[in-house]
Amino acid sequence: MLDSTQTPLKSLIHRRKPGYSLEAPFYTSPEIFEADMDVIFGSHWIFVGVEPDVPEPGDAMTLDIGKTAIVIVRDDDNEVRAFHNVCRHRGARLVLDYKTTVGNLVCRYHSWTYGLDGKLLFAEHMGQGFDMGCHSLKPIHCRSLEGLIFVCLSDDPPADFDVMAAKMAPYLAPHDLKNAKVAFEKDIIEPGNWKLTMENNRECYHCAGNHPELTVPLFAYGFGFAPEELDEHERLEAENYANLLTTSHREWESCGFPSTMMEHLDDMVTGFRTERLPLAGDGESHTSDTKAACKKLLGKINDPKHGALHFWTQPNSWHHFMSDHAVVFSVLPLDAERSLLRTKWLVHKDAVEGVDYDIENLTGVWDATNDQDSTLVGYCQEGARSPAYEPGPYSPHTEMLVDKFCNWYIGRMVEHVGR
Question: Can you give the residue range of the structural domain that contains 58?
Fold first, then answer.
């Protein structure tokens, strides 16, 4: 797969050293990027949006995963569906706008017209022998997990999505994303390989020195530490946090909010992790003052102090659900050294901007954090290009989840490329 001047992909995969970062070609090689798009993004469940992106019948949203153009629609039966965004006539892109509302899907080239179920309804001048039923839009596997939309480009999607969905639904249900709305969204082009963006997310080793906004609502001891390096005061703080976590989980679960950690990052094809964590300060939300950003709480939640639920999925997403709002993130690779990070902030569908919430306050913490992380990812990408780069060791206390991401990635590549 790689040319003769490079180490073959299979050799790179099999010599990967657990506990260490990946070799440079995994972050820089166009050939490995193409393999990633085929093996990872072409075969697994990919998070792409939320049901409030298409809240009403006729609403449509487009996106690209590599070379695959996708349109997601809500049909007249209120079902969310996904199709290849390609007209079955001569291949023109069917829906051109990122978000739009339609009665039917009409190709602008020759007016071939499709229903929201993908069936071809109108194709003029095609002759008596033309079979409309053979030219429906090509469907893409699409699932909603309590309002989070996933698609799979494979004809044979991983079946363990059902396992994740069954385990995660009770955690997500109280936040009722289906009855939320997208208050704001923002795209960033990160100057790094998609794996570097994901690795950066999977640890907070870097947070104290780089994320002054994010570290306000978060407890430092919630993201790992080396016990042997703590002084007496720090050990007491760590013990207090552990006690707070136990007490909070017990209290939240008694109120119907599943909270305990569940982790399957590298032992399932559809890898995931979740846990509800307490927040510092007033303990209500991911905001600069740690208070709720929206007066109208999500779902039927009546107490803003139910912590923050995080939910990660392999290969491309992470999410934070508070009582007052949710923030969802998806990573879509653009090329070997650039990635699209798409972030959406959601509030209750009846919340009114300027009355119930302020956009700057709602988005401030994660907007700043995303920009900071983008810079850090760029530093890593620049380093991976250097002939001096070699895989470095992960901290066993603070980067163990990065290691699990890489374990998952290598495991999936082995499964497809072969032993």
Answer: 46-145
